[in-house]
Structure to design on (320 residues):
């Protein structure tokens, strides 16, 4: 009798705990975002949109002719991140900067069939789809941080479409989102309910993250902060950012570095706290014939913090 009673009580307790685990997350309110608008209403005069693989992609172009440069920004950024170097790059040819999925003013779908539009594979196909839509046969890809990851994956899958790579503090040896063992938990209805709340932390912590990305945060102007915060006015940015989190995977690029046979330039700041400088140095050493430029007194965003030095490195690479 006592043993039966013990197991009855134990079963009841476990049942209550299970109910709490399953139901409690839904009891936490997730209020709708305030003061958000359709992304296209935030567009600038020189903004353009094109449908690529079912997504309405926001982009801007500068210059004309060849070569063509396609700019891929990093996590938490947008095409605004390149504002200090688009004009000097355009002196060489055509520059195309676009907003990667989950960022900027590019469409943020919340429902789809098949592959997530936020996955690495979909983002690679988006690069090629954008090139096709804009009649670009071959381009130099310039990628910063996670944008560098996508640039490299694109070059491996479509080497005939990539003339060269300029990798700015690329994320290769670390990153890739949550560990594999926790991903099933993140995809549960409970975490899908709470996920946008986690994504919204970028509102309160984003400024500190930007400061961490700079060697000298005193150079961050109000205009720069405004440029980063503007996309947070777009509808569903929090839900899309969570979907990007769910779709993130390790790139496994570190295992394939010997496969790169196009010209590669690696640029890094000497004080990068996001992708440590030594990782970029290692990357340039492990990619066959890659060139390396380390910019002094510079953090994770050389194209923003040290645009003149960044352009000097690019100019030397393009005109050896």
């Amino acid at each position: 009798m006592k043993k039966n009673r013990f197991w009855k009580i134990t079963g009841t307790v476990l049942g209550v705990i299970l109910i709490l685990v399953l139901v409690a997350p839904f009891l936490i309110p997730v209020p709708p975002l305030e003061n958000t608008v359709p992304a296209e209403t935030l567009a600038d005069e020189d903004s353009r949109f094109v449908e690529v693989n079912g997504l309405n992609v926001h982009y801007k172009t500068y210059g004309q002719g060849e070569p063509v440069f396609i700019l891929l920004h990093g996590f938490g950024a947008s095409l605004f991140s390149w504002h200090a170097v688009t004009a000097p790059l355009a002196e060489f040819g055509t520059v195309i900067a676009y907003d990667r999925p989950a960022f900027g003013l590019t469409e943020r779908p919340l429902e789809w069939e098949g592959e997530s539009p936020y996955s690495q594979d979909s983002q690679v196909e988006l690069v090629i789809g954008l090139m096709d839509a804009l009649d670009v046969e071959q381009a130099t890809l310039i990628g910063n941080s996670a944008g560098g990851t996508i640039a490299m994956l694109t070059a491996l899958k479509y080497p005939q479409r990539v003339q060269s790579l300029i990798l700015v503090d690329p994320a290769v040896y670390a990153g890739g989102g949550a560990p594999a063992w926790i991903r099933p938990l993140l995809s549960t209805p409970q975490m899908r309910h709470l996920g946008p709340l986690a994504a919204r932390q970028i509102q309160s912590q984003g400024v500190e993250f930007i400061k961490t990305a700079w060697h000298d945060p005193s150079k961050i102007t109000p205009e720069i902060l405004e440029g980063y915060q503007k996309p947070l006015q777009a509808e569903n940015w929090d839900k899309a950012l969570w979907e990007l989190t769910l779709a993130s995977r390790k790139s496994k690029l570190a295992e394939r570095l010997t496969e790169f046979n196009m010209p590669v330039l690696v640029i890094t700041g000497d004080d990068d706290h996001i992708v440590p400088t030594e990782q970029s140095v290692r990357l340039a050493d492990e990619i066959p014939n890659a060139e390396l430029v380390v910019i002094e007194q510079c953090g994770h965003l050389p194209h923003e913090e040290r645009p003149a030095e960044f352009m000097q490195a690019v100019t030397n690479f393009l005109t050896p």
Q: What stands out?
A: The longest helix spans residues 2-27. The chain has a mean pLDDT of 89.
